[in-house]
Amino acid sequence: MQWDPCLVRSSEDAGVSIGHPDVDDYLRFVATRARRNTLLATAFDLKVFFGVVGKDPNAVTRRDVLAFIEAQRTPRRGPGVVRLEDGEAGLSARTVKRRLTSVSGLFEYLIVRGDAGIKQNPVPRGLSTRRAGTRTRTVPLLRTPRTLPRVLSPGDVDAVIAALRTHRDTAMIEAMLLGALRRSEVLGLTLEDIRVGEKRVFIADGKGGHQRIVPVSARFFQTLARYLDAERPDTDTNRVFLVLKGPNRGKPLSAAGLEEIIRGLRRRSGVAFTCHQLRHTCLTRLREAGMALEAVQAQAGHRSIESTRIYLHLANGWLDEEYRRALTALDIPTTEGTR
Question: What is the largest CA-CA distance in the chain?
């Protein structure tokens, strides 16, 4: 079967398809157990894969998968042009790894379904290696570098805050910058989720569908009160953050609407940043201020504390203090002590 994958979004049931019955069946399955953003990302990953491979799912081989990896890692703008973030020239290893995860999920689904003629997943788990006298071990297909997330400096934060124009926008930025809320969590807040007396916010639908209650600075609640009193349109929806102008006035603010606000902020402030970097900045500053790692984990909504440990590396003050304490224990004079 020859087919040209084309990503199509349905306006009726919010479904997604790319034009192959088996793949579309898998996407309907994904839609029942994942967020819409995850569904869209999975559909796009599969579109890219089959667009490169050019085969029906039951004809895909491991050679095709390895060739796909090579094509994705090929430098896009010449071998001498690399990203400053990770020094890579092609697509990042994280992106390629995510796409392989989406492809592997499709084949695992078709194997379990049992009627697609697929007996083995063509996406290998890794490459087997063996040294003399040792057991065989599997190394990953792609090694993803562990890079530190970027956080905003105090000067950058001041520039962003100064560029805000409405109480609504200020409240959203403060929710991320002072409460470490994710973009989707900010947009999903309802009036019932705001617990003013406790100075806390209820996250009803966090990442992975997990709920949590987190404290947020009184500054956020003061800004929010000004927005609710002076700017928020009178409407039946219980969503907190709404569109303020235009034909969609009074409707819940969308992710695209928030991204438009962020683009304007970047332009006016001269600071290149993302919503997630605001969250990283908050969690880093909390750790630097001495907040216990377990408390940072609860604030962030991380299921595993391993995800939170990265803030140990970002919190420079903590590392400096531990290093100096170790030098003192070793009786090695520090720079301050030799002056």
Answer: 77
